[in-house]
Amino acid sequence: MIRDETSAQLSRLLVRRSSFVRALAERPRDKRGLADDLDTSRSTVDRVVRDLLDAGLVERADGLYRLTCVGRCALGAYDECLDSLRGVQAARDLLSMLPTDAPLDPVFLTGAAVHTPTPDIPDSAIRELFSSVESAKRVYGVAPVALVGQLRPFYETATEGGTVVEMIISDELFDRLAASPDSHAVISDQLRHESVTLYRGEVPFRFGLWVTESEAGIVVYTDTGVGGVARNDTEAAVEWATEQFEALRENAERLTLDSLDGVPGDG
After folding, report:
1. Domains and CATH numbers, the chain
2. What φ, ψ does residue 128 adopt, rounded to 5°?
3. Which parts form a coiled-coil structure per UniProt (predicted)?
């Protein structure tokens, strides 16, 4: 409890005094320099410097105040938190379409570009998915649900340049697709493709996910179609998406043409 209170106090101090901390991160300053550069009173500087000293964020050396290692690490953590919050804010409309327990890590949202359909370009969001995979060397994907009409265009786009594709299809979706003659044919065609590997298994979330060697993305579905897409090319986002895929693949069943034998829709 004491640690929580201390962390909360540090957070409040960084929020209120971030301009002072950033100024001292740029270069050491004396109190007069802080007052002049930040256009504030000397009494305010005295009070803030005292608080920063007490928190261990600042130290005095040769008449100047500078950040300690604690101060620099605290500022870095504060900035990471701000970046995460900006990502959540930017994706607010997209996130509102997901269940409250959707396992979406804030690390994916930090720096993500969000795309939602517009009335004049209703397929603009799904184009972002196609744009991401068309030039990739490899694509890992997870499909809990799907727009049946987009299956063939997706696989054609992904494999056109020899891209290696691995896709996990949820059990529920696989059963539905295999029962449809058109979708059944798409799955059969892809299982015959030398660069495509398909799996079926349990998928504990309702958003689609893909990851290439340089980018990760999610697709959010609604009752009326694709609600939006988010893409992120940061290393952290790619690592997170890859981990999600690999964890699901461990327990998934690899599909073969024999897997489709006797499934309604064949032929």
Report:
1. 1-75 (1.10.10.10), 98-262 (3.30.870.10)
2. -65, -40
3. 231-258
